[in-house]
Amino acid sequence: MIFDKFIGLFSNDMAIDLGTANTLVSIKGKGIIINEPSVVAVQHDRYGRDKILAVGSEAKMMIGKTPVNIQAVRPMKDGVIADFEMTERMIRYFIEKAHNRKSFIRPRIIICIPHGITQVERKAVKESALSAGAREVFLVEEPMAAAIGAGIPVSSPDGYVVVDIGGGTTEIGVTSLGGLVLSKSIKVAGDRFDKSIIDYVRQNFNLYIGERTAENIKLEIGTAIKLPKDIIIKVKGRDSTGLLSTIELSSEGVRNALKEPFKEISLAVRQVLEEMPPDLAGDVVDNGVVLTGGGALIRGLDKYLATDIKLPVRVADEPLLAVAYGTSKVLDEEKLLQVISNE
C-alpha cells in the first residue's frame, strides 16, 4: 500500500468515461483533458493488414465519407465493447495522449461501465485497459458516477434517482449509503434517437440520410414536448431514385419521430420507481429525479418525464460531463473509490 502510494507520486492516474458516443479522460488533479468521439478510422491494405489513420474527432469526420479501403469504426455499441481490438487501440491512443510519456510508471485507471454489462464484458474492458498500458484497473458503474458528477450526495442515507441518457444506453440508478439500491440499463439512448429520425425521414419524405445528419437534426430541433412555435430546418439527402434532394423538416416532425424511444425510457424509470423500497420512495418524492448525459439536453425531456412519472425532474448543471466529473472525483478521493468500485 505504501509502495503503491509512492508509485502514485510519479504516475498520472486517470479516469476514463468510455462512452458509446464520446470518450472523456481525466487526469488526477487536472480534471478532464480529453473529450473526443469514440471512433477509430482504419485503413486496410491489400495484404490484409490494418493501419490506424485517426482516432476521435478526426475519425468522426470520416463517417459516411470513406473510400473502400478505409473504414470509420465505432468500437463501442450499446454501451459495451463490440470490437475488442479497436477498443484496445482506442484506449491506448487516449492513454498515450493523456499520460506523461516521460514517466516510466504506468498509470492506475478507473473506467466507467454501464450497470447491465456481463462479467465477460467487464473482463474485456479491464483487459483492454491493461493491454493498452494500465498498471491497475478499477471499474465504476455509470449510474453511480453520473450521480456523483451531478452533485448528488451518494453517501447519504437519503434516496436519489439519476437517469443517465448516453449514446448507447440509458442508465437508471437509485443511490443511498454509497451504493446502488436499484439500477436498470436499457439500450435506448442517443443512437436509437438518431435511428428513429433516419427511419422517420425515409418513411415520410422518401429521403435517405446518414447518422451524422440525423445527429445534427436531433441537436438542432430535437424536442420531447410540443413547442409554442415550430422550428424548421432544411435537410439534404438522397431520394429513392438516387437523386440528391432537400426537404424542410419541423421540430414537431422530430418529436413524432422520437415518441417511441422517449416512451421506453419513461417506462423503464417507472419500473425502477415501482421496485423501490417504500422508505426510499418518500425521499425520492422530495428529491425528484436528476437527468444526466447528452440525451438530457433534448428540449423539454425533463418536462415530458415529470408529466409522465408525476415527480419533479431536473437536468444536471453539465449533463454531458456528469459521468466524467463523477469518475474524476472517484479518482481524486481514495475512500470513495474503495466504497463504490466494483473490485
Describe this structure in words.
There is one protein chain. By secondary structure, the chain is an alpha+beta fold. The protein has 4 domains: 2-35 and 84-144 and 323-340, ATPase, nucleotide binding domain (Nucleotidyltransferase, domain 5, 2-Layer Sandwich); 39-73, no CATH class; 158-188 and 262-319, Nucleotidyltransferase, domain 5; 190-257, Actin, Chain A, domain 4 (Alpha-Beta Complex), CATH 3.90.640.10. The protein contains 13 helices and 18 strands. The chain has helices at residues 2-8, 57-60, 84-98, 119-131, 142-149, 190-205, 211-221, 251-257, 259-275, 278-287, 301-309, 322-332, 334-340; strands at 14-18, 22-27, 31-37, 40-44, 50-55, 70-73, 76-77, 80-81, 108-113, 136-141, 160-165, 170-176, 179-186, 207-208, 232-239, 244-250, 289-292, 313-315. The strands form 5 sheets. A 5-stranded mixed sheet has the order 3-2-1-9-10, with helices on both faces. It has a 5-stranded mixed sheet with strand order 13-12-11-17-18, with helices on both faces. Helix 6 crosses helix 8, helix 9 (259-275) packs across helix 11 (301-309) and helix 12 crosses helix 13. The two termini are 16 Å apart. 45% of the residues are buried.
